[in-house]
Write a structure and sequence with these properties.
By secondary structure, this protein is mainly α. The chain folds into 2 domains: 6-189 and 297-326, Rossmann fold, CATH 3.40.50.620; 209-290, Tyrosyl-Transfer RNA Synthetase, CATH 1.10.240. It has 14 helices and 5 strands. It has helices spanning 19-32, 44-50, 58-72, 89-100, 103-107, 110-118, 127-130, 132-141, 155-172, 211-219, 240-248, 251-262, 268-294, 297-326, and strands spanning 6-11, 37-42, 80-83, 147-150, 180-183. The strands form 2 sheets. Strands 1-2-3 form a 3-stranded parallel beta sheet. The protein has a two-stranded parallel ribbon with strand order 4-5. Helix 3 (58-72) packs across helix 13. The longest helix is centred in the last third of the chain and has 30 residues, at 297-326. The relative contact order is 0.14. The model has no long low-confidence stretch (mean pLDDT 95). Bound molecules: tryptophan and iron/sulfur cluster. Iron/sulfur cluster binds at residues 223-224, 227, 234, 236, 239, 241-242, 257, 261, 266, 268, 271-272.
Length: 328
Amino acid sequence: MTGKKRILSGMRPTGPLHLGNLHGALANWIKQQDNYDCFFFIADWHALTSDYEDTGSIPDNIRDMMVDWLSTGLSPEKSTLFVQSQVKEHAELFLLLSMITPVPWLERNPTYKDQILQLSNKDLSTFGFLGYPVLQASDIIIYKADCVPVGIDQVPHVEITREIARRFNNFYGEVFPEPKALLTKTPKILGLDRRKMSKSYNNAIYLSDNNETIASKTAKMITDPQRAKKSDPGNPEICNVFDFHKMYSNIDTISEVNENCRKAKIGCVECKKNMTVNLIKALEPICEKRAYYVSKPDLVDDIFKTGTNKARSVAQKTMEEVRSVVRI
Ligand code: TRP
Ligand code: SF4
């Protein structure tokens, strides 16, 4: 026992990670590794709740996600990193929890209604999609997690988890602590078009993008829309490129850009180029680690195996307790 509180969180393997993910969830996870006993997992069963028809890309997505995690600083020495579907105990607990979860709790889940509207191209009228929060509850409480670092959109799911845990404890005895959501701040950078960075908006820079791709993406970034000509003074406050400078350039550059932009002494093309150099430099260590892990598939396999075994032994212990109190 480490004596540290335990946190657990997961990501669905729906595609490569981008800068928004890095500066949001991932940075927060990396930071927590020294403060908590951390469990982080790839939620492949959850990916199936909406993408059940074409599952072909899931294996590659799982591996890519682990490589992204490792190259940004999640550490298999500090944290337990694993894949949900490799710990079958989640499914057993999911089944038992489904027996005690009232359907109206799931039907009134705001995420449920919202997603059905947003993903109208998919048929989400499935049992599995309705039960998404029950599977998530089993992910969380099977490790008796104290806290769950998530974005604001996932808070209703943690709330349902607490309700399910409470109901279980009422029926069968105190087995599960009620986990708390640990809110992740929203990332400081937006997508290329200044909307939230997202795969579905096609406005993301991925951790796996090469330098040329990054440069061609940043070249298309929207700047101060009022600034038509180089001789027009600009306003960095409303410019996305300036936000990126604030993330990736040093203090001197930031204040130079701030001044020169307002005095029309620098053009946007040059300004973007300077920012891009710094962005690429900042991503270099990630890029190098990425190449390292890509070249060492056996090492990554080992990391999957070790993490999964660690997670499984905790989950098995909880399930012994669960079976005993449920008497099944
Ligand atoms: N639903 C989460 C998301 O889409 C992923 C997830 C699955 C999760 N199980 C979890 C997050 C358990 C935290 C804890 O982001
Ligand atoms: Fe933005 Fe730089 Fe152009 Fe100013 S000079 S509007 S900060 S890109």
